Amino acid sequence: MVKRRDFLGAAGGGLAASVLGAGAARAAGARGAGPSASLFLPADDLDGAQVDRLPLSWNQERIRILCARLRQDGIKGVLLTDRWNIIYFTGLWHSTTERLFHVFFSTEDPRPIWFYPGLDRDLVTSWWYEDGEMYFDWHHGEGAFPHRGKVQMGAQVDLWAWVMKRLKKRGWAGKSLAVDRELTPSSQQAVVAELGGEMTSAAGRCMDMRMRKTPQEQALWRRAYNYFNRVHAYARDMLLEHGTDLTDYDIAAAATRWGTDLIMADLKRDGRPHSSVGFSLRIACRTGAGTAYPHPNQFHHNRVARGQALQIAGGIRIGGCGGELYRAFLIHPWTDHMKKVWTISRDCTRIQREESVAGVTCSMVAYRIHKYQVDNGMADYIYHRPAHGEGSEGHQPPYLALGDHTMLEEGMAFSVEPGLYDPENGFGINWSDDYFIRAKGPARQMSRLPWSEDWCLIKL
User: Fold this and answer.
1) Other C-beta atoms within 10 Å of 299: how many?
2) pTM here?
């Protein structure tokens, strides 16, 4: 058996830096090799996408649909201010800080008018760009543009009012406009002062579209989960092979590196903007008492031990599509109580899939899961709702919660988290995956990982 110190000595290289050499690791990854992969669920009828991101034509179609719906509301133009709305409706992946970054569309002829900081000028103008206004930075000094040789301590510019002035200059005063959020009174005052009327909220229209994933999104989602399956299999194989020689940190760090190398080998990229966008990979692992808390605040660097619970978790996205994947393990010997809590929680993942049918409310699915938990003596171990909606930003509406009466519709995506936690006995059980609502029948599971005892109840 490889000793823990030997594994750690090269853990920075993932699997290639532990038991196998680099070439063997890549070959194993390419084949999806390893004993755990043999336990994957059978493939279904959704193939993974061949692209690394949704094409610009997809984003342009989404903004056309939004604008058509806003025209029905009498809206002539819409200002997008939310990062995730901007990405969804324009395809421009970008980071946000305190800096103002907005885009405006006419609903009659949806072409972007950008309002952006100088540090993003190359990203903006090399993407879908026809018109725009740039300020230097937050806080912008009037007339100051050092990159143009204009270095001066100008008066601080109110950038929200600046956007309104620029819209007025383009002839948008006196027209019915919307913005993708509820404006504060002071923000509305600036709108009225420059444009002569308030902006209504289009937040609901934007979220309604983002909540319902298109077939193209679902195919890219599946591609992300195809990789995720293999990363989980790698982590489980490591656990089975090296067992108590490892810490939970070792598993998370090595799986993160291995998964990143696996996916990066396939993404088309040249180091320049607009390639390998929307990619994220985070693998986590916690064992022992750390599993007993839904959102623990302690760092996880604990030795794997027999008789404990262990969770392998994380999230993977490609082009912004993807989500969570957690599995809850018990390491032999476990108590009857641990096995019961594990079983009830696992059964709830099945209930969620079967009950998540188009036309049923979120609250009804949550009710049936919580009722099953309570009826089986688990009330003391319930800490949260069974699931949240899943989007590029992570959590998004709707929620499988007792107070959310949204009707389930085709294309909605949810996490799978009917967790149960017992801090007194130092363990907890929680899962996740993505379930997609289909036109008919139970939800589609995005991963191919089983929920079975064969996968999750292990002996080291």
Assistant:
1) 9
2) 0.92
